[in-house]
Structures are given as structure tokens and as C-alpha cells.
Amino acid sequence: MIADLERREPDSVAYIRPQRAFADIVVSFGPIAERQQMADDPLSATVLLRPTIPHPNMSSVLTDDHRQAVHLKLLRDRDGKPVDALHIHGYAPKSISDEIASEVWSRLGVPEPVPPSLGQIEPGIHSGPLAITQLILLYHLLIARRGEEAVS
Fold first, then answer.
1. Which of 8, 23, 26, 58 is the one with CA 20 to 30 A from 136?
2. Residue 29 in 3-state DSSP?
């Protein structure tokens, strides 16, 4: 997975990063430097949530019980503007990541159960950070499609 990111880096520099300042949500996957992760360790995600659009209420999962898997920080982005940074840890136990994913899924108002393909990198390989990130993005797509304001 790290090799894929490195291979795509030139495209990211040329086409994606120049748009960063205009994005409501910025997602990045990578190892956490402070944890001295190895190349084959599961990647964590950082989701920058700008105050330009309403985001899902995640207060029920941003608790001490879930801190091993997610936590929220207020940071300044590269342009100096404040952003909420949701850190989703790849090293978290699957049970905690699944609990968070189920809670976010419940906010979507979709009657079906959480799809087993959520967070799937390839058959048999699952990423909790990918699943939670996918759900946050899906939340925003559904809200935009419905023409609604974000719901708690």
C-alpha cells in the first residue's frame, strides 16, 4: 500500500494538492510518525473537516472508550486556517473500529446493515480507517443528494 502511495505521489503533487485550500474535506492516509510505524503496518487516516459545510455529529464516538481508534484535534492547515482533524488509527483493534463504523452508519438513515465490503482493500484485507473515512464521505454525498442540512 505504501508503494502505491509513492507511485501516485507525482499525480497528487500536480493535480490534487493545488486544490487543497478549496476542499471542504481533505483525506490523507499514511503512517503516524510518532509511532515509528513500519512500511507494512496498517495505514492511519487523517480527515480534515473544514467549517465550510456541516459535518456529522460524531460526539458519541469521540469518547475515551474510542480514543484508541479515533480522536479529534483542532489544527491549523497549511494556509493557517483552523480545521478539525479527525485522526483514525490503523493500529486500533478491529472491534473498536467496527463499533465506530456502525455508529456513523446509523447516522446515514439507510435501513440496510453495514456492507461487508466497507473498508475492503482487497479480498480478505480490511482497513478500519478506510471504512470510517468512506462513511464520512458517504454521509456528505447522501446529504448533498437529498439537499438536506447535516443531521445529528
1. 8
2. strand
